[in-house]
Amino acid sequence: MRKITSPDLMKINNRRRILEIIYTEKNIYRAQIADMTNMSNQTITNLVKELINEGMVEEITLENKALGRNPMALSIRYKQLCSIGVEISVESINAGLYDAAGNEINKLNIIRDINRNVIDVLKEVIGKMIKSAEGLRILGIAISVEGIVDDRNGVVIKSKNLDLDGINILSELEYLDIPVQIKNDVNILAETDYGREQTNNYMLIKLGGGIGAALVLNGNLLRSSNNAAGEFGHVRLYSVSNLKACKCGQYGCLTTEASITAIEEKTGMPVEELARLYQSGDSKARKVIKEIAGYISEPLTNIIAILDLDKVIFTGKLVDLFGDELTCMLEEDINQNLNKWSSFKGIDVLNDYDITARCAHYVVNNFFLKWKDETYD
Ligand SMILES: [Zn+2]
């Protein structure tokens, strides 16, 4: 690769800064960009011209009588830019192509076939999405995986029944020549949870076939050496008498008692059936859910206390099925056991989201806002 010299780097940084401003401020005039940066009018004129020619930016007319005349404002060319979001789950591989404003262009869903290699299906799905993006500029691809993911290197460390353990997805997709990011599913939800501006300290917990979580502290996602921060499913329960063996090598983990897989094993029925019984007022079904709430709230109360979290946000199929009642039980348990100094303000629920759309949004946001994190070597 050609070595990047400092004038080149300065130009790259100036271009990215202009794009960042146009993306953040929505519609903006060249003169306003000059006010916000140390760049000369000529530099801005030249770089904007380049960005317009490349199809990244467009000129639009705004009604602005205060300025006396009507100069052309600048906007990101949202319809010309797109990103791809992919979800690899135990049941299926889902993909979505979205323009940079988040409008859906194409979607695809392929049910998992145990006779087919996941990576082959992934390549096929992405290939189809790229084909439907013809004529558009693809900013990147983000892939969500259930499990422990080394997102710096694009390696799946431990996935739940996906046969992806140890696979470097980035290397597998290198031939695409498009930036690709691999993220844990709950982490990507937390990083795109733009509706939670009221708090910077929260835990997002997904209750599904397994149990996963992400911690956002002081507005930043907690990362750790082994990428296993937030493995809430593998905290130990001490109130359970019959300790079950867990895949993680321990006994009596939260996931062996409170995940949907565990509940279905325990009750001998699909969780949807349990929800139906619960809704009809069945006392046994109610007892099961009350017990689950107890298992979750015990370790969770300690985490809230030690990190002084403001909020806990629940998501996932179990929350979709038992909604408010489960979160009410959890909130009651937590409030009963939490110390009086805690900042805890309650539980929120996150549902009705599309993970492929979240992944695609993550790509766009990162492209325009996180460019300083990139290295030029
Ligand atoms: Zn475990």
Can you describe what's shown?
The termini are close together. The protein has helices spanning 6-25, 30-36, 41-53, 118-132, 169-172, 185-191, 255-258, 260-267, 271-279, 283-307, 317-337, 355-369, and strands at residues 57-61, 72-76, 81-88, 92-99, 104-111, 137-145, 147-150, 155-159, 180-184, 202-207, 211-217, 220-221, 311-315, 346-349. The chain has 12 helices and 14 strands. The mean pLDDT is 91. It folds into 3 domains: 6-77, Arc Repressor Mutant, subunit A (Orthogonal Bundle); 81-190 and 355-369, ATPase, nucleotide binding domain (Nucleotidyltransferase, domain 5, 2-Layer Sandwich); 198-349, Nucleotidyltransferase, domain 5. A 5-stranded mixed sheet has the order 5-4-3-6-9. The protein has a 5-stranded mixed sheet with strand order 12-11-10-13-14. By secondary structure, it is an alpha/beta fold. The structure holds zinc ion. Zinc ion binds at residues 234, 246, 248, 250, 253, 255.
